[in-house]
FAS1 domain-containing protein (Emericellopsis atlantica), 416 residues
Amino acid sequence: MRLLTLASLVAAAAAQSDLASTLASQDDLSTLLSVLQGLPDLVDALSSATNITIFAPTNDAFDSVPEDSAIGQAIANNDTTAISALLSNHVYQGQYPADAVMETPVWIQSLLDDSYVSDGMPFSNFTGGQYSGVVLDGDNVVVISGDLTLSTVTEADIMVGDSVIVHKIDKPIAFSPTLVDYTRRDGLLNFNAALATADLPVNFGDDSDKMSISDFTIFVPNDAAFAAIGSVLEGADLKTLQDVLTYHLVADNVVFSTALGNVSLPSYQGADLTFTVADDGSAWVNDAKIVFPNVLLANGVAHIIDGVLNPADAPFDRADIMPEADASDRVAFENATPVSMLPFSTTTPEMSYTTPELLQTYAAVAADGDMEATMTSDMGGDSTGEPSSVPTDSGAVKMMTGGVLAGAMLVSMLMI
């Protein structure tokens, strides 16, 4: 046992030296190295980790951060918790070489978990770590992160030993917002107001005294969808509004569009949601089209849809989908009509996102040949200790089979 302990210490020391020397050898990573040197616990954790991919912001990437942003203020104030959380979100479980990235995103998890807390709230609250996407944009590898942020790899595949890959990026990977922050900033004000009016017992970022939630998927109707059923909303009582909104929520299952197929899942309200991939590659939930997929949140993923879902339609028959019809002709509430003003007040958005073209054009549904990450850790190998090659599903944490949640994890958890 003593020999094993000594061997482990020697290996850890060598790994730390390798990582530090690799970063020190790259002139354009000197800011990252300097920041890391102020976080010895994080350096120790990274140095003992294996089978990880580090997306390393260059000096120019750090310089590009606005001083009044959350990241800029964390660095300026030497907020070690926020900085540690930020850098942990740049380290991902598994090896992702540049030549394995495809035009369909793969959703991977970082080391940012709920242990990093500020003002009583974690920066991220996913089981297994915060999600980001990795996708090919032309010849460039791009990381998709919170607030619709895209970080482009400027130099790829710098190896540290045989189990750590470093990619340089031109912009730091961003924290993901809460649901209410995202909908307010993106101008989805009718949903935001409906959520506030419904006063659900779940904290979506609006009330820390409510029940916390993680690992959820939510389908957010756009403003036009709510406007189309104004007459229904006028006459709806609180219980009806709560039922409608919770029908848009899938609990305990992170479902990215790239994992969708012709399946069904139970909603938080209780009735099933029916998912369909049409012949044209579009993705649907009941008779609502997903018009903008895979919005990364701090504890879930959101998909924007063009209709308000009706729990009375469950189980929905996918044969009734009308892919060619306009959203106004697919209203799920019979005889619903617009009204001059909805029965709940909206707030002024804090900001408006400018959606990058890549996020409007990448394939929302998985293509053939999903990227594989080679995972080799105490949990990632087989019983003989040999490395395992674990496919990353491009999609959900839990598999969907015939409407039943299969509990098998798709990605091995890294132990450090």
Observations:
- Residues 2-24 form the longest helix (23 residues).
- The longest strand covers residues 149-160.
- Residues 6 and 12 are 10 Å apart (CA to CA).
- The chain has two domains: 2-169, 179-353.
